[in-house]
Specification:
By secondary structure, the protein is of the alpha+beta class. It has 2 domains: about 1-30; about 35-125, Beta-lactamase Inhibitory Protein, Chain:B, domain 1. It has 4 helices and 3 strands, in the order ααααβββ. About 15% of the residues are buried.
């Protein structure tokens, strides 16, 4: 009888581990950075928010904006979002609700320009 309960626990633990690995793989694929697509970036709807977050991850990780002029950035991303967040810190683009189980804040792509009006930093920030 003891052996049967032990085997049942081993099988149960194995199934839980497989389920956790599957959820982790799904989450990783869903949240990974993706290549920039102007049309998808421009949609601006709530369904596009996750896509925008993933594209911003790709832009920051690849340093794709580094050295671009302000006019090149605005041609690529459009005009910055309006509002008071990150005023004086560069152009801010709303990406969507923050990632995680409890989304209280928003995530933003903040593009900072040097004295010559070229990108010297791009970061993802939360408000």
């Amino acid at each position: 009888m003891r052996l049967r309960w032990r085997n049942a626990r081993v099988v149960s633990c194995g199934l839980v581990a497989i389920a956790l690995l599957a959820v982790g793989a799904w989450w990783h694929l869903r949240e990974r950075a993706t290549a920039f697509d102007h049309a998808a970036w421009s949609t601006g709807d709530s369904a596009g928010a996750t896509v925008r977050l993933r594209m911003a991850d790709g832009l920051v990780a690849s340093h794709a904006l580094q050295g671009k002029s302000r006019s090149e950035v605005r041609a690529m991303l459009g005009p910055p979002s309006t509002g008071g967040y990150f005023r004086g810190q560069g152009d801010a683009y709303w990406l969507g609700p923050e990632r995680g189980y409890v989304s209280i804040d928003s995530e933003w792509l903040v593009v900072h320009f040097d004295a010559n009006d070229h990108v010297d930093a791009a970061t993802i920030r939360r408000d």
